[in-house]
Amino acid sequence: MPNNIEVIGVIPARYQSTRLPFKLTREILGKPLIQWVWEQARQARLLDKLLIACDDDKIKEIAESFGAEVMMTSAQHKSGTDRIGEAVRDIDIKIVVNIQADEPLLHPSIIDGLAQTLLSDSKVQIATVRKKIENKEEINNYNVVKVICDKDNFAIYFSRHPIPYYRDNTNGVYYKHLGIYAYTKDFLYTFKNLPYSYLEHAEKLEQLRPLEAGYKIKVIETRFESIGVDTESDLAKVEMILKEKSIKNEKL
Question: Looking at the DSSP assignment, which residues form a beta bridge with residue 132?
């Protein structure tokens, strides 16, 4: 591998899915969901390499059909972090961006923002993304994870509950967490080897594991919306958005 490669994007792709079976192969406007994600990620300027790490021949076949570089990984991994750990183990790389396989609206500037955050500050080991909540229905939706940060934009806490609690102000500002991360390769293995934590168990949020262990998570902000596809309703919503953009001939 050339010496000038610093940043790799990895899309961990699991074939099975509990809430929406085989969702990564479901078609949206004639293309499988995983292809939309890959095409968005390819537009990021700071990725030197992009890889789909999958656990099934069906995903591998589909991904290779649209030109993606694919690596088969164990079907026993419990998380995308573990799958990425296997995928990059033998790759000489500095920074790894964990790109969610079910977010076809992910804007490439988000990937670049995360990569730049780690490239420009050697003290930052892990970074993620927040977006101001515009739709008030998301505030009390436990599937929409909220995040609060300190003055230097490091995460204080992530929760499925609305945080902070505004005692005297019903029009407070909330930020949701977008589930994309960048970490140094060294910290990736630190992260995945940390013991399952109390807060992680309580909220069922993996990012609380390093936070509870005392590591600092940098949080950057984006104005771009992203929707994770977990249900038929999500799939229909994404398809409608993509159809509207196609009619307007807009880029995501």
Answer: 175
C-alpha–C-alpha distance, residues 179 and 149, integer Å:
16
**pLDDT exceeds 90 at position 114:** yes
**pLDDT tens track for 81-106:** 999 999 999 999 999 999 999 999 99
Distances (CA, A) of 175 to 41, 103, 139, 157: 23, 18, 9, 11
Tokens of 136: 């008030």
* Mean pLDDT value across the chain: 94
Which domains, ranges and CATH numbers included, belong to the chain? 7-248 (3.90.550.10)
Is the full-model pTM beyond 0.85? yes
Q: Is 71 helix (H, G, I), strand (E, B) or coil?
A: strand
- Evaluate the omega torsion of the peptide bond into residue 162 and state whether it is cis, within 30 degrees of 0: no
Q: Which helix (H) or strand (E) holds 182?
A: strand 175-184
Dihedral of alpha carbons 200, 203, 207, 213, sign: negative
The band of 250, judged by pLDDT with boundaries at 50, 70 and 90, is low
Give φ, ψ of 71 to 5 degrees.
-130, 130
